[in-house]
Each structure stands twice: as structure tokens, then as C-alpha cells.
Amino acid sequence: MKTKLYSLMLACATLPLFSQVGINTATPTATLDVNGTLKVRDVPAATALPGYQVLAVNQGTTQVFSMDPAILIAASGTNTTVYNARKTTGINILNLGVLPSDFQPVNFLQADRTIGSAALFTNADGSYNIPSTGVYAVGFAFRYGTGLQASLLSGAPGIGIARTRSAVTTLIDTRPFSGINLALAINITFSDSSINSLYSFQAGDKISFGLVDTGNISVGLLGSSVASFYIYKVSN
Description:
Shape: elongated
Strand order of the largest sheet: 7-5-16-10-14-13
Number of strands: 16
CATH architecture of the largest domain: Sandwich
Number of domains: 2
Order of helices and strands: HEEEEHEEEEEEEEEEEHE
Low-confidence stretches: none
CATH topology of the largest domain: Jelly Rolls
Helix content: 10-25%
Radius of gyration: 31 Å
Largest sheet: 6 strands, antiparallel
Structural class: mainly beta
């Protein structure tokens, strides 16, 4: 009789080891199911990442999982705004009418990209589409012809970056082609220019890369020109 009683008590004692416990819930769905907030008063700091796991909450099931910190580091390094394009042949300038008369964008196409998603670019107007508001690093380089002309180009031709917001286009930066007057009436234009800077944009802005004061730009020399740009978000 005593043996049977001891066996029953032992069986009952082991039941909680295999059951689910709920706090503020009568129907737990995990070994420990807490329906409420969690407070930990003393959490020692880790001195290095190797050998440690971080805890992450699944937003769908609210279940807690361990995660290798390297996964978070890799995810944070993915910048979906990055875009780079380079055009070495077939360069022309677009005459869209809706843009300022002294600015004409280069006819960049999605096919000219070397890095980035094609969805960020619009072929019709040669523009990059800002996906989210923030600060962006932008670079634009243009070599007109061989980059050196045997005479000074009249006016102030150069390169420019334009931003279109709510159907209004604004030149946000320009760089002229520089020239030099040498002895014996020798004039030279250095037609190789670049822009590299940071700009604040809003989601939905369209960014165009082109030439300014194009009245003295030769279409024939455009065919041997080279143009490239890059853009990516660096901060909110």
C-alpha cells in the first residue's frame, strides 16, 4: 500500500515539470506564457559579441527567440537606397520643357545602373526617386568630350543637380566648366567637372543629373562624353 502511495505522489510531483505555466493567462501556449510586461532589475553588460545571443520578439506570435548578433549587424548594413549609374556611350540631353530652361538632364536609363534597384529610377525623365526622407550623399561627374577643349566655351556651361518636388524643379547645385587664358591668345576649357556633397530630400523627390547653360554644347562631342552618378541615404 505504501509503495502504491509513494508511486502516486511521485507521479503527481513530476507533472509540473512537463506542463505550461501562464502568468495573467489561463491558457498558456508556451512553457512560460507571460501576458504582461517584464521587468529585469539587474542585467550585466557583455564585453564582447562572440558567445552571446540577443533576444528578439516575433511580432506575429509574440514568442521570444534567440538571435545571433551578427544577423542584426548584417541587416543593418543593407542600404536599399544605394544607386550608381555610368554612361559611356549614347549620351544625350533631354529637353523636357517642365524643367528650368538652363538645365537639361542627361539621358540616364535603368540599363546604365551598376548598383541598385531599377525601381528607384524613372527612364522617361532620367531621374532617381527618393524612397524615404533623409540626408543623402550624392555625386555626379561629367567629362564633356575628351575633357579638354581648345577654346573657351562662351557663357557658363557646366553640370548641375536638380530636385523636383511637387512638380516644381529647383537646381540644388552646379559646377561650371573652367577655362584658362594662356599666352599667344591660346584659350582652353577644362570640360571635366564633378559634384560631391550631402543634401536633404523628402520622400517622393525626383533627382536629375545634367548640364546647365547648354547653348554652346556640341551634340557631336556628347557622343564621346562620359557621365556617372551615385546616391545613397546616410541619415534620417
